[in-house]
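Wed. Picked up where I left off yesterday with DUF6894 domain-containing protein. The coffee machine is broken again, so keeping this brief.
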Amino acid sequence: MPRYFFHFRDDHGSLGHVDTVLPDSGAARLAAIKMMGKVLSGEAEKMTLSEMWHLEVVDGAEAPVFALQIHSSSTGRNRRLAN
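Structure written out below (tokens, as returned):
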């Protein structure tokens, strides 16, 4: 089975990586979605407004397989209320 690498970063740089052996790219995609869900549920309070989190999955040859991007932003109304 092929090995996939999951690279996680935010606007400030790398937050780490994980690698695992999975049956195919579909399984790697599903693993990435689940991983991002766990990160968001456990680290949500650390995400600031206008911040981007990225999770990229590459295969053993470093070829891109799948990517997720989460961007937090405030609506215009919330911006006015915060000022």
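Quick read: Helices lie at 25-43, 76-82.
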